[in-house]
């Protein structure tokens, strides 16, 4: 069956589609810059073309700890299997050289003084079982050493030493992987976004940090670094230029008491790399602010480090974090559902340098915000008043009992006048 032809000619439709595409130009999104530090604290860095691979074997313990769990478990299993097989081969060779594998010697053991090196080792399977019994110190009583072979005694001593070394290295590696410092950092959380607002008359960069566990981080300190691509006056391009920025802390040391979520503040002053950046320039900046929290775990005494980063798209200008700590029945309660919530506040859109040069900008901004707040309150009150009046009028119309009765007044002339009160 043939398809119906459209009423509108096909040439007209194509022309209209082309005109619409010309009227609405496509806006291509700016490609997202690769982060130096991910939100979960992992370093977004790939090491390539490393020629000196042997350096990793010089620090074999750290290499084993840094491996993935599946690789560690494979190495753990293969190290024991290989050692058991190696010494099983040695025990089999010792028994073969001594003649324990000869079936004729089994019938002469009771009539002569001949004795095997290891009793009941007649095959490679029995030698493998004896190797396992020696290394893991399991004695079933069927296979045992004798005094006939000094070489067998030497193999026994060597296997015990090698087994202890393998146990110490592999068990220590697994323990270190389970007790790594970054495991404790999983319960140290940062706000998803950072804010820039006015605090104490200064523009400040702020973010929130909290600890989900009751065991505290001792001597916790916070550092902030700005990573950006810069070019020196000589023309040298530095792709990862790190600049430390100070953290506003009323205590002389940089330590914080992380018993409850805290708002870490950085005052944008002349020393800050954000001093010349305004709200309009922030979206165009190619920078990344890295936050590093270090401290000692109270329960284990191991130093831990938690990291995160904020790019320009994750910094909200003119916002402030809502309070989440309240006092309930003598106990301070923390509502983590509002951990990253922010609210809009009055803040000048200019840079900190312009704010220092013209302090009147801050006063004008605050006055405008106060006037807008008062106007919004007036509108809200007027709307409430109008709604209450409309509600009362509607109730009078619907309920006849609320109607005002008519009262008749008699004048001296004898006429009656009706009026409402």
TrEMBL record:
GO BP term, example: potassium ion import across plasma membrane
Inward rectifier potassium channel C-terminal domain boundaries: 188-358
Residues flagged as site, Role in the control of polyamine-mediated channel gating and in the blocking by intracellular magnesium: 167
Catalytically driven reaction(s): K(+)(in) = K(+)(out)
Gene Ontology CC entries for this record: monoatomic ion channel complex; plasma membrane
Entry's family note: Belongs to the inward rectifier-type potassium channel (TC 1.A.2.1) family.
GO molecular function, one term: ATP-activated inward rectifier potassium channel activity
Subcellular location as annotated: Membrane
Protein name: KCNJ8 protein
Residue ranges of the TM segments: 73-94, 151-175
InterPro entries found in the cross-reference section: Ig_E-set, IRK_C, K_chnl_inward-rec_Kir, K_chnl_inward-rec_Kir6.1, K_chnl_inward-rec_Kir_cyto, Kir_TM
Organism: Geococcyx californianus
């Amino acid at each position: 069956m043939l398809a119906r032809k459209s009423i509108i000619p096909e040439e007209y439709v194509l022309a209209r589609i082309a005109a619409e595409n010309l009227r609405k130009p496509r806006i291509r999104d700016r490609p997202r810059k690769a982060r130096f530090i991910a939100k979960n604290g992992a370093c977004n860095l790939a090491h390539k073309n490393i020629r000196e691979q042997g350096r990793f074997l010089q620090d074999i313990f750290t290499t084993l700890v840094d491996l993935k769990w599946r690789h560690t478990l494979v190495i753990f299993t293969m190290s024991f299997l290989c050692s058991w097989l190696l010494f099983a081969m040695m025990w089999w060779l010792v028994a073969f050289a001594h003649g324990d594998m000869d079936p004729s010697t089994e019938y002469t053991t009771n009539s002569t003084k001949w004795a095997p090196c290891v009793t009941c080792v007649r095959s490679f399977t029995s030698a493998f079982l004896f190797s396992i019994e020696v290394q893991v110190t399991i004695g079933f009583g069927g296979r045992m050493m004798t005094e006939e072979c000094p070489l067998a005694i030497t193999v026994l001593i060597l296997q015990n030493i090698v087994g202890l070394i393998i146990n110490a290295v592999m068990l220590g590696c697994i323990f270190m992987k389970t007790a790594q410092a970054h495991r404790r950092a999983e319960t140290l959380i940062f706000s998803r976004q950072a804010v820039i607002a006015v605090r104490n008359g200064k523009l400040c960069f702020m973010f929130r940090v909290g600890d989900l566990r009751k065991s505290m981080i001792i001597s916790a300190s916070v550092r902030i670094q700005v990573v950006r691509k810069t070019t020196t006056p000589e023309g040298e391009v530095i792709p990862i230029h790190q600049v430390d920025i100070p953290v506003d802390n009323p205590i002389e040391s940089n330590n914080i008491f992380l018993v409850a979520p805290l708002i870490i503040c950085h005052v944008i002053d002349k020393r800050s790399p954000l001093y010349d950046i305004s709200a309009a320039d922030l979206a165009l900046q190619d920078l990344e602010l890295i936050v590093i929290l270090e401290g000692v775990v109270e329960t284990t005494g191991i130093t831990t480090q938690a990291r995160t980063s904020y790019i320009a798209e994750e910094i909200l200008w003119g916002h402030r974090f809502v309070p989440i700590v309240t006092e309930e029945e003598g106990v301070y309660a923390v509502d983590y559902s509002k951990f990253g919530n922010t609210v809009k506040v009055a803040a000048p859109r200019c840079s900190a340098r312009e704010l220092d040069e013209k302090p009147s900008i801050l006063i004008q901004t605050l006055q405008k915000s106060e006037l807008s707040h008062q106007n919004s309150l007036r509108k809200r009150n007027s709307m409430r008043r109008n709604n209450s009046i409309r509600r009362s009028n509607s109730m009078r119309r619907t309920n006849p009992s609320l109607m005002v009765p008519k009262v008749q007044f008699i004048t001296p002339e004898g006429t009656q006048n009706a009026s409402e009160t």
